[in-house]
Specification:
By secondary structure, this protein is α+β, with helices and mostly antiparallel strands. The protein has three helices and ten strands, in the order αβββββααβββββ. The structure holds zinc ion (2 copies). The site of one zinc ion has 4 residues, from β5.
């Protein structure tokens, strides 16, 4: 085989490997939602707002979550808690709150926020002032005010 052929085959192999890594890191397999997710068919640019309170203290949600070599459709631009959902083609998996935490690289489920878990405290989530039990499976909507609150047992 000629060198050119090797180079072509090598190039294809690289594309396949990186494509696989890209798609597997974007796969949120285990997140399930209690709510039927209404996935918009058109591009969206939505801004839900997230607040995390642990033992009465607000936790900073940093800027540029999801912005790196791969620009994730779900990301932050500042530290105000505004989540940007900028999709050409939204998918159900990427519209749930748990996906944002996956992009951030932090733990969130009905059992734990970060390393704070319900064996040592209470975890509550509200959306627009109402209790919500979807936790990581909550499909975010434009303008949502999402509050996750953890209180340690004293
Ligand atoms: Zn935005
Ligand atoms: Zn953006």
């Amino acid at each position: 085989m000629s060198q050119t052929k090797y180079a072509v085959i090598g190039g294809i192999a690289l594309v396949v490997v990186f494509g696989f890594i890209f798609f597997s890191t974007n796969n949120v397999g285990s997140i399930t939602s209690n709510t039927v997710i209404d996935v918009p068919k058109q591009p969206i640019h939505w801004h839900p707002i997230l607040e995390i309170i642990i033992d009465g203290k607000n936790i900073e949600i940093p800027e540029n979550i999801g912005i790196g070599s791969v620009h994730d459709p779900v990301h932050t631009h500042d530290n105000t808690g505004t989540i940007h959902m900028e999709f050409e083609r939204p998918t159900a998996k990427q519209m749930v709150l748990g996906y944002f935490f996956k992009v951030w690289g932090k733990k969130f489920s009905k059992e734990c926020i970060f390393d704070y878990c319900t064996d040592k405290g209470t975890l509550r989530m509200t959306v627009n002032g109402r209790d919500n039990n979807d936790f990581e499976g909550y499909p975010m909507k434009d303008g949502d005010q999402i509050v996750i609150e953890y209180q340690s047992l004293s």
